[in-house]
Design brief:
457 residues, Aldehyde Dehydrogenase, Chain A, domain 1, Aldehyde Dehydrogenase, Chain A, domain 2, 2 domains, 6-stranded mixed β-sheet, 14 helices, 18 strands, 41% helix
Length: 457
Amino acid sequence: MAIATINPATGETVQTFDAATDDEIERALALASSCAASYRSTTFAQRSAWMQATADLLEAEADNVAAMMTLEMGKTLASAKAEVLKCAKGFRFYADNAEAMVADEEANASAVGAKKAFVRYQPLGVVLAVMPWNFPLWQVVRFAAPALMIGNVGLLKHASNVPQSALYLADVIRRGGFPEGCFQTLLIGSGAVEGILRDPRVAAATLTGSEPAGRSVAAIAGDEVKHTVLELGGSDPYVVMPSADLDAAARVAVTARVQNNGQSCIAAKRFIVHTDVYDAFAAKFVELMSNLTVGDPTDPATDVGPLATEQGRVDVEELVDAAAAKGASILCGGKRSDGPGWFYPPTVVADITTDMDMYLAEVFGPVASLYRVADIDEAVAVANATTFGLGSNAWTTDEAEQERFINDLDAGQVFINGMTISYPELPFGGTRRSGNGRELSAHGIREFCNVKTVWVG
């Protein structure tokens, strides 16, 4: 894929970028390695000040940065600006809390025959981040903020369709005061990742993206005995039980499905509804989905903008069309409109069977799958009938049902009477083929640490 900004609303190529040469990659690796050796000795107070300054810049530049993100990947201006401000919040969260999160942990010295025993968290060094286009800033910041605060340095290989976002991140972190080489963007294709990851100066890697990409990076890192954190796909269930507030559940369901134009790993994708309230919920949900405005993402009246890539729309179309050909019911949407840009309408598909690809595949667009279930046992079974396990949602006011979903939904996150959202304060990650490891919270900052045992006799 060419490294280029292509406007998804028009299909127009706005700007192309040259890939980094081998010499440029080598200079970046050398600089990162040199920086890591000294940066690890800076104080938490100094890193915190740089991080707060970076957050200040993000907030001051939010409107322009949001416009850039909308141009590159088609998210609405409102959601783009919200993402910028969320990044500033993430920087501030770690600026304020990182030192306490990785403070020395005292152990029971007498139990191990020591005068003193404790655990110390220390940085690993250079961490390679391979990031996706759907949240061009936030996906990176949720790695970068904790990594920089513990004393690691970062190399970013961003998605090839968001090069301006990638370059901006390195620039704003530099302008925030972080030392040269502390965080660098490499404009490279996926073919260059293996060589960088195998380089002995790179200590670890993190990837957010597709399952095939995760497998590839994990295999290389495993061969090199390097730590990875992987956040891969998701086909999150959204369960609605009879005690739920149906109006609220339907309203939130729409946001949960079409957030980021439907291109979010933690978007609810499979709506699993108890038969007693299925018809009522389906009617409300379909009406709300049908009433969404699809169009120019820079227009404040737009609810859903274009998909980020032409191939992305093809993938969505093929899944919906194949399901319809096998007997699925299209309750709304299902057909792209004519004209420029990679738009696809909010779509609800029902009567899905296990022989349809849509039953297991992650549909990365504004397409909802609707399932009718007889009881909570079937709801849990359908919810877990996927290879993924990222987020999950369940709507019920019955405390026993809530406890059942909390225990039995096989996912890294369970949200009751709400929708899955990433917060700096909570750990984020999945199970099964949704990846391994955790981002955010104290768990996220400790992922790229040497957890060092200290015993003093």
